[in-house]
From TrEMBL:
It holds the Pfam family Epimerase. It comes from Nocardioides jishulii. InterPro entries: Epimerase_deHydtase, Lipid_A_modif_metabolic_enz, NAD(P)-bd_dom_sf. Residues 5-196 form the NAD-dependent epimerase/dehydratase domain. This is SDR family oxidoreductase.
């Protein structure tokens, strides 16, 4: 069955692949973004849309009969000109505008890219499951970590709508650390140091997911009948020590109190945008169990966490 699918953030890193993948499957795709790169692929209509502008969102929906929305628009890696107000406007207010439009125009299903960061960075993460977080664990995104807080707020919004508007089907994807051949961001920068930084006493495993597996999970969420919340991660996890060994490098283990001091000084001197609150990111990463992804949504990642990291490492020549 051919669907009309509107993808917010359609020209972004994930959006570009999602748009092309859905179009190849024969769906009519509306790629909505602030700006677009190049001409639209066959079967794709490009819409200029700012999710922070409620009128612009309304106009996009008013002129098209949309069956499914894939909401990817968010600020994952803030630019130099970004600030907390802009990030909130995109991540939280923008999501509200999109969901309100879905309800006004009778959209059947919404697929939302959330994040493992929605669980937050807490020392007791996954305590009931040997350190692994399942979709039944609470969403406790840290107030001091903007991206984590915003993902929590968005998930709270979605939870309320599941009660007040059950007619809007939801698939919420809590995505782990994405790797791909071209991925280069603040997380992968940690792996390109001569010695990898770690908090003393914290294994802080990473769960990775290859970018094409994220796209595959989104496509399954769009076209399938299943609804719900799903962790999107490859099988297994890698600790910082295991990552360092794969790179042939060592680690630097720093006590958390000292790391807080160093980050605090660095931010005051203007040499780092990160402050002492960021130590939780290094010490208590959410480790995602993907059982429900595999058995309920029915998507089995092609690459495990280790395989995704190795593929990224080779692509980067490391």
């Amino acid at each position: 069955m051919s669907l009309t699918v509107l993808v917010t953030g359609g020209s972004g890193f994930l959006g570009t692949s999602v748009v092309r993948g859905l179009a190849r499957r024969g769906h009519a795709v509306l790629s909505a973004d602030l700006r677009h790169r190049g001409e639209a692929p066959a079967g794709v209509e490009q819409l200029t849309m700012d999710v922070t502008d409620a009128d612009a969102v309304e106009a996009a929906f008013a002129h098209h009969d949309v069956d499914v929305v894939v909401h990817l628009a968010s600020i994952v890696t803030p630019g130099q000109d970004s600030d907390v107000d802009l990030e909130y406007a995109v991540d939280v207010t923008g999501t509200r505008h999109v969901l309100d439009a879905c309800l006004r125009h009778g959209v059947r299903r919404v697929v939302v890219s959330s994040s493992g960061a929605a669980y937050g960075y807490h020392p007791d993460n996954g305590a009931a499951h040997g350190g692994w977080l399942t979709e039944d664990d609470p969403v406790r995104g840290n107030h001091e970590f903007v991206y984590s807080r915003h993902k929590r707020l968005v998930e709270e919004m979605l939870a309320e709508l599941r009660t007040t508007h059950p007619e809007l089907e939801q698939v919420v994807l809590r995505i782990g650390t994405i790797l791909g051949e071209s991925v280069d961001n603040q997380i992968t920068a940690l792996f390109e140091k001569q010695r990898l930084l770690k908090i003393r006493g914290a294994e802080s495993p990473f769960v990775f997911i290859w970018d094409t597996d994220v796209v595959g999970a989104i496509e399954r969420a769009v076209t399938g009948e299943v609804t719900g919340i799903f962790n999107v991660a490859g099988d297994g996890a890698l600790t910082i020590d295991e990552i360092a060994a794969r790179l042939g490098r060592g680690t630097i283990a720093v006590p958390e109190p000292l790391m807080k001091v160093v980050l605090g000084v660095g931010r005051r001197l203007g040499v780092s945008r990160y402050g002492p609150e960021q130590t939780v990111f290094l010490a208590h990463r959410p480790v995602l169990d993907n059982t429900r992804l595999r058995t309920v949504l029915g998507y089995v990642p092609e690459k495990s966490s280790a395989e995704a990291f190795d593929a990224w490492r080779v692509a980067r020549g490391l």
